[in-house]
User: Fold this.
Amino acid sequence: TDTKQVPWYVVNADNKKKARLNCISHILSKIPYKKMEYKPIKLPPLPEYEGYVRPP
Assistant:
């Protein structure tokens, strides 16, 4: 099942957390993407609540 279009990769999994992070990093590095420009989000001011007493 290992082909040029769908290669297999061996992951050293002695440390499970690092192995998972390495897999995620590798998969994301294989996905082509374009950097997108984002417009800043403008949020409305928070309403002031009357009767609220902040605990010390």
Q: What stands out?
A: The chain has a mean pLDDT of 90. Helices lie at 16-29. The first helix runs from residue 16 to 29.
